[in-house]
Amino acid sequence: MYIGLLEDEPHLAQHVCEILENAGHTTSVFNNGTDMVKAIGRDTIDLFVLDWRVPRMSGLEVLKHIRNVRGLKEPVLFLTSRTDEQDIIEALNAGADDYCTKPIRPQEFLARVTALLRRTYPDRNDQDTTRRVLNYVFNKLDNSVYFESQHISLSEKEFKLALFLFENHERAVSRERLMQEVWNGEGDALSRSLDVHVSWLRKKLDLAATSPHLRLKPIYGFGYRLMAVNGTPDA
Question: What are the residue boundaries of the Response regulatory domain, all occurrences included (predicted)?
Fold first, then answer.
């Protein structure tokens, strides 16, 4: 998972990143609230870890931006030295999902992160070779997808892209995130390749703008969203 960390103390930020990355996550560190807000506008972050006292915009202001301005539902965990009960209540009432105090207790912190991710992204926790998402069955052994009595073979990149989009259906997913997940990088060449792969998936998996059940829609200047036409199909 991709986790955004708002922390202005370099040594603590490094320590938190090590905890998360050793658990298999990818992290980006922001040492002030304004830079994190800018990142939210151009990328897709799975979970936010916020310190309260940081320059330019506080963690609470960033939380309010996430919930009230961007309307995002991604989980938010506070990691802060503010231990007063009223601070905890204020953060939770503003939309935080959990609250962890400093000094950090690594095992407890990681357990809280894991619990939030497990509850928020149930479609991404299944490690079986065969996955069923939105009535599409993904077979990781041969990169194939089965739906509506059709058996479609995909290339490795097509399969990774399709599965990630289905695992994150109804979410706005940035181009940067898709290129990182599928190609492990970014750039003009990869950006063009992404658009080509999206076009192929629309045809192969019936995700075009006129498709009756699911549509893979572009979000201008940001990325793509896989959406159900009339409510989410049965999983």
Answer: 2-117
pLDDT in tens, 140-197: 999 999 999 999 999 999 999 999 999 999 999 999 999 999 998 766 667 789 999 9
- If one counts the domains in the chain, the total is 2
Q: What is the pTM of this model?
A: 0.85
146: left (phi over 0), alpha (psi -120 to 50) or beta: beta
Nearest 5°: phi and psi at 5?
Answer: -110, 125
Closest CA to 121 of 78, 159, 75, 161: 75
The CATH number for 95's domain is 3.40.50.2300
The answer as to whether 234 is a domain residue is no
Q: Which residue spans within 2-133 are E strands per DSSP?
A: 2-6, 26-30, 47-50, 76-80, 98-101, 130-133
